[in-house]
Design a protein that fits this description.
The structure is a single chain. The protein folds into two domains: 6-154, DHBP synthase, CATH 3.90.870; 159-250 and 287-357, 3-Layer(aba) Sandwich (Rossmann fold). The longest helix has 14 residues, at 6-19. It is 36% helix and 22% strand. The chain has helices at 6-19, 43-52, 63-68, 86-94, 109-120, 149-155, 214-218, 226-239, 251-254, 257-268, 273-279, 290-298, 311-319, 339-349, 363-366, and strands at residues 24-28, 31-37, 58-61, 77-80, 105-106, 127-131, 144-145, 161-171, 175-184, 191-197, 205-211, 242-248, 303-307, 323-328. The chain has a seven-stranded mixed beta sheet. It is of the alpha/beta class. It is an enzyme of class 3 (hydrolase).
Length: 367
């Protein structure tokens, strides 16, 4: 299709509809399932969805959220929504302290598709689902999505970027850096490549793949080391004679800014970063790196010296045909506020760093 693959278009339209608080229809082999993202549904829309499905709607919980509630549901769980008001269903879907439901059943793989569509829309993966059959219904005007559409988008559109702007920007302590904007990808987000110095693209190029963190990068949050890694990464690229920093729009390890702030609230209550995301239904890391691979290829980079502590980035680039010749660490300071977070990254996410060997900032300086 000249305007994109059919599956990709359906998935992108479906994600936009969910984000707007409207239901979509998931179609498979003659059956239809209405889907509504709980995160975007107002109380009135929730009640209208229940009425339109004759009270047969269920809440789908992802495996991480189901495990939080003590349910043995490796495919996720379906909980009847009847007799639950909006506050009650939200508490069950993504809030702390919810009681395990007395009635539930194992979900089918099709429900995973519904939750994945919500994640694509940067919404929580708690979704309402209901079988609606083939007859006329209030959902006939809704966007339709088919199983496999999301995977089609990630295997095609996610790798399709084009350069739309390039200009030098002087940065403090770094000098002129060429900011290059790439547009495209699945669900169309602009991404940045910052070219530091004059790297030799014919050789192994120093590269930092950095995911956006508005709290750390922009506001100097002490809860994470992201700002340190951003500025330290740029400084290291300069010291190495030049390189490229890819700044990817995937806030909150790919969950979005709203989910990240919810997770921060749970961390404030004592959870670590992995458990906080599980409360919301997410896995430990929802980021993807198709954009990084596409942009590197467009820049003519096939071999990198990767500035990272994250072995998952190394594995993804290598699995996508990018040669990773060397890993270079990129580290920040330990503060009283981020020490637990750093240790969680090492102990639970496998990041490669020695927290005890990092420079420390005491409580007075950190405040």
């Amino acid at each position: 299709m000249v305007f994109g693959s059919p599956g990709t278009l359906r998935a992108e339209r479906g994600a936009a509809e969910l984000r707007a608080g409207r239901p979509v229809v998931l179609r498979q082999e003659g059956s239809r399932i209405a889907v509504l993202a709980l995160d975007a549904a107002s109380p009135s829309i929730y009640e209208a969805f229940l009425a339109a499905t004759d009270g047969d709607a269920c809440l789908y919980l992802t495996p991480p959220r189901a495990a939080v509630l003590g349910l043995d549901a490796p495919q996720g769980a379906l909980i009847p929504a009847r007799a639950r008001d909006h506050d009650s269903i939200c508490r069950l879907g993504y809030m702390r302290g919810a009681d395990a439901p007395a009635e539930w059943r194992a979900a089918t793989p099709l429900m995973h598709e519904a939750a994945a569509l919500a994640r694509l829309a940067l919404l929580l993966p708690a979704v309402l689902v209901a079988a609606i059959g083939e007859g006329p219904s209030l959902f006939d005007a809704c966007a339709e999505v088919e199983p496999g559409d999301i995977q089609q988008g990630f295997s095609t559109a996610a790798l399709d970027f084009r350069e739309v702007a390039r200009t030098p920007v002087p940065l403090k302590d770094i000098g002129d850096v060429v900011f290059t904007v790439f547009r495209g990808g699945f669900a169309q987000r602009d991404q940045l490549a910052l070219i530091v110095g004059e790297p030799d693209f014919s050789g192994s190029v120093p590269v930092r793949v950095h995911s956006s963190c508005i709290t750390g990068d922009l506001f100097g949050s002490l809860k994470c080391d992201c700002g340190d890694q951003l500025r330290g990464g740029l400084a290291k690229l300069k010291a190495l004679g030049g390189g490229v920093l890819l700044y990817l729009d995937q806030e909150g390890r790919g969950t979005g800014i709203a989910s990240k702030m919810r997770a921060y609230g749970f961390q404030h209550q004592g959870l670590d970063t992995v458990d906080a995301d599980a409360e919301l239904g997410f896995g430990g890391d929802e980021r993807r790196y198709e954009a990084a691979v596409s942009i590197l290829r467009q820049l003519g980079i096939g071999s990198v010296r990767l500035l990272t502590n994250n072995p998952a980035k190394i594995a993804y680039l290598r699995g996508s045909g990018i040669v990773v010749d060397e890993r270079l660490s990129v580290e920040g300071e330990v503060t009283p506020q981020n020490e637990g977070y750093l240790r969680t990254k090492v102990n639970r996410s496998g990041h490669l760093m020695n927290v005890d060997a990092l420079p420390r900032k005491d409580s007075d300086a950190a405040g």
